[in-house]
Amino acid sequence: YLAKEGRTGVELYQADKDRNSPERLNLLGDLRRGLDNHELKLHYQPKVSLADGTVHGVEALLRWRHPVHGAIAPSEFIPLAEQSYLMRQLTEYVINEALEQAARWWRAGLPVQISVNISARDLLDSALPEQLEAGLARLQLPPSAIQLEVTERILTGQQAYTHDTIKALAALGVPLALDDFGTGYSSLIRLQRLAVSEVKIDASFVRRIAESEDDNRIVRSIVDLVRSLGLRSVAEGVESDAVALRLAEMGCDLGQGWLFGRPMPAQDATAWLRDRHMTSPEATYDLHPEVT
Ligand code: C2E
Ligand code: MG
Ligand code: MG
Ligand code: MG
């Protein structure tokens, strides 16, 4: 293993990039064990309205504390899992954890939508809509209690196969968000055909809109495009008031980033949510009585 000291003193771990290296295979084995041992936990980051600050949902982001190597970033272990049979199990775990948390929040009078990241390959799995449907029914949650985030990569290749899963999700009423928008090669027509309800503008464009006229124009045109399609726009990586202000002026709907809140463990997120005004994903949803 190549362990190195991070600037914060937290041990960062870099898996060897070689696909079949012993390090990589070891880490994959560790990940499988880590999943069984609940070493992986979801943290939750708020998405807020840029116009009035109300909370419109949270994104679930996976955190792994390795017993020996410490914190390992999703950018390290997600690509690893994506190349293996483990991805399916990982996504299943994440969806179940998110559904359980949504049920806890909805029962506590915090009807918040949880967005879950799935990988493009998860859409090849026809069992995904069934898992969601069963989980929502078991926990007595409306389909809008959850949202799936997929990157633009779903627009490249294997479209015929993913199409059925996307159709099944739409029939179920589970919303779909397009993540990291601007980094891929989506055309307007493809975007419209995809039946997404939310477009998340990648942080790499958002970050510099207060200084760069070019980035400002790019984000403005994405916001306009998204609005013209009747979809919701979300800016990722909002770190400053200046950026939030510009986004609000453009008419961008929601913002997500350190300015509003970092990804937090469920308990901290509960406290954070309690202090805020929320906009329910389904205001008319009839809450079921307390169940334990
Ligand atoms: P993403 O879905 O685009 O998530 C946004 C990333 O931006 C997160 O990184 C989040 O912590 C980070 N972020 C949020 N606000 C700010 C900010 O103001 N400034 C900066 N610099 N960063 C900010 P994270 O948690 O490291 O996740 C990275 C990526 O890993 C995610 O990108 C997503 O693609 C993937 N990922 C995370 N959790 C899961 C999961 O449960 N399943 C799958 N399939 N992928 C996941
Ligand atoms: Mg995401
Ligand atoms: Mg993103
Ligand atoms: Mg990303």
From TrEMBL:
Residues 24-277 form the EAL domain. It comes from the Bacteria. Signal peptide: none annotated. This is GGDEF-domain containing protein. The chain holds residues 396 to 687 of 689 of the full protein.
